[in-house]
Design goal:
This protein is an alpha/beta fold and 395 residues long. It has helices at residues 2-9, 43-46, 55-65, 80-91, 106-121, 138-143, 147-150, 199-210, 261-264, 283-297, 305-315, 338-350, 375-394, and strands at 22-26, 29-32, 37-40, 99-103, 125-129, 160-163, 178-183, 213-217, 241-244, 255-259, 323-327, 330-334, 353-354, 356-357, 364-367. Strands 4-10-9-8-7-5-6 form a seven-stranded mixed β-sheet, with helices on both faces. Pyridoxal-5'-phosphate is lined by residues 45, 105-107, 110, 133-135, 184, 188, 217, 219-220, 245.
C-alpha cells in the first residue's frame, strides 16, 4: 500500500527507485519496516558525515527546537546558531575567507556564487567543466558539463562554457572576459575523478592572470570526506569563493558560500538584495552543522580517513573490479558494464548493503559511507562486496 502510494503519488525522477521503506537509521545502518538492516555505503550521497542520527547532532537540534525555529528571512536578525557556525567554519579557512552566506542547499550556493562573481567582476562568462554536475536548477544546469541533461531546458543562461577537466591546454580558454571558473577539486558525478598534479594550480594561476574568480564546488568534497577538512587543502590551492553543503549539516539541509567581505559586499549594494532566501541559515540546520564541525574537529574521524581508504583499496581486489578511483571515503568502483553495476547495487540491497550509481558514469558504483564507519563495518562491507562480485563472476 505505502509502496504503491510512494510510486504513484510521490513524484519520481527515475523509473526504478531503490524503494527501501525506512523505519529508522542509526550510525552506519538504515533499518526498514520489516526489520532488515542495511549497512549504508552511500550516506545520503556523501551527506551523513557522522552517520545517521549522531547523538551530538540530534541533541543540538532538540535543544534549538525549545528555543526558536524560523524567525525572519535570511540576514535580518542576529541569530546565535548562525554566528557560532560562521565563526567555526571561517576559523578553519585561510584568511581571505572572512564572510559566509548561509543558504539551503548545494545548488543554491552555486547559483548565488555565480551571481556574486558576475556582480563583482561585471563580466558574464562562466567557465566550468565537462562531465561536472553542480545541481539541478537552471543556473547550475547552464554550467553543467553534460548536454543530455541540459538539452530539454534550453535556452539556459548564455555565456556558459565547459572545458575538459584535467586538460592543461584548454585552460587557455579562461580570459579577461571570464567572471568565474567553477570547479570541483574532485569531480563527483563522473565517478570521482581526481585532479592531475599541478592542474588546480594551473587554473589558479590563470585566474590570477585574468582576474577571474575561482569558485570551488566543495559540496561533496568538504567536511572531511577526502581526508582533509576541505578538498582544496589536499592540493594547496585556495579559491576565491567556496561552496559547501551536503556533509555540512550532519543530516540536515544547509549550504553556504564563503568569500571575502570585499567580494561578498557586491550582493548588498547597487541594487541591494543581490541574493535573498527565506530559510537560508535556518537555526536547526546551523546547530546541526555546528555539532558536526565540532565533532569533526574534536575527534580523530578525519585523521582516520586515509587508513579507511587504504583498507577499502587493499580489500577490494577482484577480477571484476577494473579500477578504484577517488580519495578518502569518496571511492568509485569501476566494473565492466552498466548491467553489472545495476546487478551489483540490486544484489547489495538483497545482502544488506546500500551502494549507488553515478549520474554521469554508468560503469562505476559509489562507496561514500558515513565518515564514522568503523573498521569492522568496512571489513564486513568488503566481504559482502566480494561475495556479490564472485556470484556475478560465475553467473
Ligand atoms: C559537486 C556537487 N555540486 C552541487 C550539488 C548540488 O547540491 P544539492 O543537491 O544540495 O542542490 C551536488 C549534489 O549532488 C554535488 O555533488
Amino acid at each position: 500500500m505505502s509502496k504503491s502510494f510512494f510510486l504513484n503519488h510521490i513524484a519520481q525522477t527515475n523509473t526504478n527507485p531503490l524503494s527501501i521503506h525506512v523505519k529508522s537509521a542509526k550510525g552506519s545502518y538504515i533499518k526498514d519496516i520489516n526489520g532488515k538492516k542495511y549497512l549504508d555505503l552511500v550516506a545520503g550521497v556523501s551527506a551523513c558525515t557522522l552517520g545517521h542520527c549522531h547523538p551530538k547532532v540530534t541533541s543540538a537540534i532538540k535543544k534549538q527546537c525549545d528555543k526558536y525555529l524560523h524567525v525572519m528571512v535570511y540576514g535580518e536578525f542576529i541569530q546565535d546558531p548562525q554566528i557560532y557556525l560562521a565563526k567555526s567554519i571561517l576559523s578553519l579557512l585561510p584568511s581571505n575567507f572572512d564572510n559566509i552566506y548561509f543558504v539551503n542547499s548545494g545548488v543554491e550556493s552555486i547559483e548565488a556564487s555565480i551571481k556574486l562573481a558576475k556582480r563583482y567582476t561585471s563580466r558574464s562568462e562562466i567557465i566550468s567543466f565537462k562531465n561536472s554536475y553542480y545541481g539541478s536548477t537552471s543556473g547550475a544546469l547552464s554550467i553543467m558539463g553534460d548536454d543530455n541533461f541540459k538539452k530539454k531546458y534550453k535556452p539556459l543562461i548564455s555565456d556558459c562554457n565547459q572545458i575538459n577537466y584535467n586538460d592543461f591546454t584548454s585552460i587557455s580558454k579562461i580570459s579577461k572576459k571570464t567572471a568565474a571558473v567553477v570547479i570541483e577539486p574532485i569531480q563527483g558525478a563522473s565517478g570521482f575523478i581526481t585532479p592531475k598534479d599541478g592542474y588546480l594550480n594551473a587554473i589558479r594561476n590563470k585566474c590570477n592572470e585574468t582576474k577571474t574568480l575561482l569558485i570551488f564546488d566543495e559540496i561533496q568534497t568538504g567536511f572531511g570526506r577526502t581526508g582533509n577538512f576541505f578538498g582544496f587543502q589536499s592540493y594547496n590551492v585556495i579559491p576565491d569563493i567556496l561552496c559547501i553543503s551536503k556533509g555540512m549539516g550532519g543530516g540536515m539541509s544547509i549550504g553556504a558560500f564563503c568569500s571575502s567581505k570585499k567580494i561578498m559586499k557586491s550582493l548588498s549594494e547597487n541594487p541591494q538584495l543581490g541574493h535573498i532566501t527565506t530559510f537560508g541559515g535556518h537555526p536547526i540546520g546551523c546547530v546541526a552543522a555546528l555539532a558536526t564541525v565540532k565533532e569533526l574537529m574534536n575527534s580523530n574521524i578525519i585523521s582516520q580517513i586515509s587508513e579507511k581508504e587504504k583498507i577499502y583499496r587493499e580489500g577490494l581486489k577482484h577480477p571484476l573490479i577494473k579500477k578504484i578511483r577517488g580519495k578518502g571515503l569518496m571511492l568509485a568502483i569501476e566494473l565492466e558494464s552498466e548491467i553489472l553495476c545495476r546487478k551489483f547495487v540490486k544484489m547489495g540491497l538483497q545482502r544488506g548493503i546500500i551502494t549507488f550509481f553515478f549520474l554521469l558514469n554508468n560503469t562505476s558504483v559509489r562507496i561514500s559511507p558515513p565518515l564514522t564507519i568503523s573498521i569492522l563495518e568496512i571489513k564486513k562491507s568488503i566481504l559482502i562486496i566480494k561475495q556479490i562480485l564472485n556470484d556475478l563472476n560465475y553467473n
